[in-house]
């Protein structure tokens, strides 16, 4: 239906239509309105039909979905496959906690069949975090186990009942593990009294009833509680123990001269991996029989041991594969050191935080003979007191670098000057990966802590810990790290993006001439904002050379400001601002 031709002319002007024209237009309009009503009625019918069909389609979909649920492949998975899937549902970075929102307890709340399968899967019940009374970590009973609250309110019996209920729950949990080796993490905050220690002892005795199946143990408790709980244990009872991680905290005003009780669990017959954090580490471990160290393959001291004792210890660990230590000055007046070598034929990775005396640590590194060493991480915190270049003294680690021809992964940090760093790199003919400094500190959740320069609005910038430009081909008489493929450096501020591009260009050109290996990856962290995007230039250069270079460059966030700062001399050490130390 269209507008009549005679009416169209009135749309082009503002003329008054004649009476008969008005009648014709009115008649035509009524016809159009009637036609519109018919069309609207048809649309309404179609909409109702569409709604009916849509509802029908939805019902069909629901029926199809129900059929698919019945035919779901997971219904036909055999129990042994579900056992494996359930095991991989457990946390990978820690032991499971006793919460219904987390596996394995979560798996028992899905359906009847899954509950039955979960309860009959011993492996998923072989790992658990056990918070002793007073430890609120991952605990759903935090308030119920607040000792001071329950004592203040006079609810001693309620407190004890809750603890014993938890003890029963843990016993049931571990009973489901069948004969599987156990992985336990046991924690305590250190706040306890006579009532608390009785309950702790009760829970620990329950755990000790499974001692023959302990395989991986992470024990974090105060030293005095440890002494009460484990003083009289028989190490032979822990026949399956393979890995021990123990952190013994002490009170702020503890008697450091008191004789510590040794860590008897170290004498477990099958123990291979050990991590220790405790005061007087040397004394805790030094009075144990030597044969126990023969079995250890992985050893970490996160608390300090003396520079002299480190060498004594290493001589007793001929099967060591991985070692991480923090050294400190020896307190004894006698600074003589037995120079007998420590032969470590299986050692592959060694990490040292060196706070020891330079002379003693030089002897230590010279005595270490590790023909299989491929990875070395070294932090030095005691450079020479006199910064005069004419009295330059080498870093203690140099003898180890010279004696270990297979090192391919090298990390350097601490208070190393550029001269010391160059000296180390000159011994790195086989190094393919080098790391300078370390990434920003993180908390347990993996997030950067508040003092990180990437988070603070006011950032203090110090001189670069290392001048990467010496890695450029032709920057010195000797090409440093000719096999370098992976480069990481942190806390850079003075190196410009243009200078970085020059370094990369020189290494790529060196590869094209056959002088160096091809760069594969650079991961650099700057304490400044980006000056230039070099990504396209690097991509072009790499493509021309027939290689691929991965760039991971992190800069200061927009909106952050920083104050350029040169460190003042440190009165206790005699460092000057020109030392260009690692920080």
From TrEMBL:
Key words of the record: Coiled coil
Coiled coil: 29-63
InterPro entries, A to Z: LRR_dom_sf
Name the UniProt record assigns to this protein: F-box domain-containing protein
Organism: Hebeloma cylindrosporum
């Amino acid at each position: 239906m269209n507008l009549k031709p005679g009416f169209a002319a009135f749309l082009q002007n503002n003329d008054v239509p004649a009476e008969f024209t008005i009648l014709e237009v009115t008649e035509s309009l009524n016809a159009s309105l009637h036609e519109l009503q018919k069309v609207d009625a048809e649309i309404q019918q179609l909409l109702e039909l569409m709604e009916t069909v849509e509802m029908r389609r939805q019902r069909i979909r629901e029926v199809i979905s129900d059929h698919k649920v019945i035919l779901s492949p997971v219904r036909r998975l055999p129990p042994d496959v579900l056992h494996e899937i359930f095991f991989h549902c457990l946390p990978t970075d820690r032991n499971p906690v006793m919460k219904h929102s987390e596996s394995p307890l979560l798996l028992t709340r899905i359906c009847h069949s899954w509950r039955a399968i979960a309860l009959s899967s011993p492996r998923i019940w072989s790992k658990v975090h056990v918070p002793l009374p007073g430890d609120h970590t991952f605990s759903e009973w935090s308030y119920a186990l607040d000792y001071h609250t329950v004592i203040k309110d006079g609810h001693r019996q309620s407190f004890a009942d809750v603890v014993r209920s938890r003890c029963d729950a843990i016993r049931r949990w571990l009973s489901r593990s069948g004969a599987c080796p156990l992985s336990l993490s046991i924690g305590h905050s250190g706040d306890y009294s006579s009532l608390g220690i009785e309950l702790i002892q009760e829970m620990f005795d329950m755990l000790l009833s499974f001692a023959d199946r302990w395989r991986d143990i992470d024990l974090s408790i105060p030293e005095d509680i440890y002494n009460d709980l484990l003083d009289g244990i028989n190490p032979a009872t822990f026949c399956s123990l393979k890995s021990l991680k123990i952190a013994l905290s002490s009170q702020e005003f503890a008697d450091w001269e008191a004789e510590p009780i040794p860590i008897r669990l170290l004498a477990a017959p099958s123990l291979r991996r050990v991590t220790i954090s405790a005061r007087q580490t040397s004394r805790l471990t030094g009075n144990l029989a030597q044969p126990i160290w023969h079995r250890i393959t992985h050893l970490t001291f996160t608390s300090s041991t003396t520079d002299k004792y480190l060498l004594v210890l290493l001589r007793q660990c001929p099967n060591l594969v991985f070692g991480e230590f923090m050294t400190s000055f020896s307190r004894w007046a006698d600074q003589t050191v037995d120079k007998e070598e420590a032969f470590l034929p299986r050692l592959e990775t060694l990490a040292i935080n060196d706070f020891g005396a330079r002379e003693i640590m030089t002897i230590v590194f010279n005595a270490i003979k590790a023909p299989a060493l491929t990875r070395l991480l070294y932090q030095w915190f005691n450079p020479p007191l006199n910064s005069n270049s004419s009295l330059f003294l080498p870093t203690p680690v140099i003898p180890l670098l010279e004696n270990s021809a297979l090192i391919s992964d090298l990390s350097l940090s601490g208070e190393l000057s550029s001269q010391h760093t160059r000296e180390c790199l000159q011994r790195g003919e086989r190094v393919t990966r080098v790391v300078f400094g370390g990434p920003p500190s993180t908390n347990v959740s993996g997030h950067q802590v508040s003092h990180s320069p990437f988070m603070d609005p006011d950032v203090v910038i110090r001189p670069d810990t290392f001048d990467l430009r010496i890695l450029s081909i032709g920057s010195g008489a000797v090409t440093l790290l000719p096999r370098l493929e992976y480069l990481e450096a942190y806390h850079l501020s003075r190196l410009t993006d243009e200078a970085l591009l020059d370094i990369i260009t020189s290494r790529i050109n060196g590869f094209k001439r056959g002088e160096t290996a091809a760069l594969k990856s650079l991961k650099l962290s700057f304490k400044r904002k980006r000056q230039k995007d070099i990504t396209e230039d690097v991509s072009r250069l790499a493509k021309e050379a027939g290689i691929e270079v991965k760039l991971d460059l992190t800069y200061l966030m927009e909106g952050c400001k920083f104050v350029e700062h040169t460190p003042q001399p440190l009165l206790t050490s005699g460092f000057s601002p020109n030392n260009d130390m690692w920080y």
